[in-house]
Amino acid sequence: MKKGSGLGAAHVLFLLDVAFLAAACAAVLRLVPTLRPIGLGAVLFPIADLCLLYALGLYRREALLDVGKALGRLPIAAGAGGLGAWAATATLPTIFHTPEAHLLFAASLPSFAAAGLASRLVLHLLRRRGVFRRRLLVIGAGRRAWDLVWMLRHEARTLAFDVVFVHDLRMGEIDARIAADPASSILASASNLLATTQAMNPDQIVVAPDERRGLSIEGLLACKMAGFPVSEYAAFVEKEIGRIDLKRLDLSWLLYADGFVVRTTDRLLKRALDIGVSTILLVCLSPVLLAAALAVKLTDRGPILYRQERVSGGGQVFRIIKLRTMRTDAERNGAVWAATDDPRITRIGQFLRRTRLDELPQLFNILRGDMAFVGPRPERPEFVRELASQLPLYEERHLVRAGLTGWAQINYPYGASLNDARSKLSYDLFYVKNCGALFDIRIILQTLRVVFWPGGVR
Fold first, then answer.
1. CATH 3.40.50.20 residue window(s) in the chain
2. So where does this one cross the membrane (predicted)?
3. Which terminal residue of the chain, N or C, has fewer Cβ atoms less than 10 Å from its own Cβ?
4. How confident is the model at residue 456 (pLDDT cuts 50, 70, 90)?
């Protein structure tokens, strides 16, 4: 039987949400007989609810593991859904027939919260029964294998793993941390890898030796032919963790792996998405932008806008536009990364940075074509030269245009150190490898979570 095709916890939770939301909508329509069919509105409301759950991070690892965190975010999702529904009925009365639509939306709000609660309680029960626990057979027990175990325990999309290592001394020394780990078990290299695999019946085989000597290609091929999925370390990390592990990067894998190609269709779709989303946001948020600009002017006599050179796609240097959040003499001694509680930041600037409102003028950069809406964040030329000299593959993040938001921004907090830059690069390269319009939509939705919970922003 083929293995490795089971649904993960996030996928199961999504299906539970769909089922419970559908049941909730059906119950509302049944319990309120005065409602007549309202057409498109009855379909769009639950779809918008699902998008909000995704945007607020309720399908992410931390929310799946922490029921309290998930339940804390449900009222926010319900409230945002209600606000959006009210706006829709007010501005699109020809689609959302009033007053019936108002009544349906009002009745659906508690139903939406109840459906979300029920889904997460069911998931919690399934998780406690070990439904989502996966069994891994890792070939190798050295440093690379330990890195894999650490990432699985702290970053993986799958919530729980049972890991068994198969090791041969020709693959290198056993990592002391694995040897001392009570949750890890090590098997001596079996003469018949297929028999060992069949006895263990793992969901996945991950090839992660420090040295490839002693690696049984024939045995791995036999396992694959028997229906056991076999993944190379880098490919498994990319799929399961959502980034590229730069510490153990094999450049030959990077060369021959799929991706790092933006098709013309995707490029056109991305540009259309950039223009459409930026235009809508500028129209909707123009009062907020004007109020923020006025606040900067009234609290500080300096200029409202701040322009600075940044590097975008192809190494092109452009002038980024932001609302000014620092004193006018902030860089009299040269370019310096922002720090925690940076004294150069003004009082209104602290608020603008925390809420990301200082980034709104970059929508004009996007419309002008300097940036994309989604991409690696643009850095200053001085920092790019410094980081490129210390981080291999740093220049590859410029294969696409810089973005207002990005995969690194929604997965890693703000950082101003070399280690932070290395971590963000691992996410940026994952984005460059897999970029496309659909991926951009996922990132745009999840940016809402970062706006609500801006941990690590400086």
1. 133-241
2. 12-32, 38-59, 71-96, 102-126, 272-296
3. N
4. very low
Residue carrying the six token digits 């322009």: 307
The pLDDT-based confidence of 114 (bands split at 50, 70, 90) is confident
CATH placement of domain 133-241 = 3.40.50.20
pTM score:
0.88
* pLDDT for residue 188: 73
CA pair distance 177, 182, nearest whole angstrom:
10
What proportion of the chain, given as a percentage, has pLDDT over 90? 55
Apex 362 CA angle, 358 and 365, nearest 5: 160
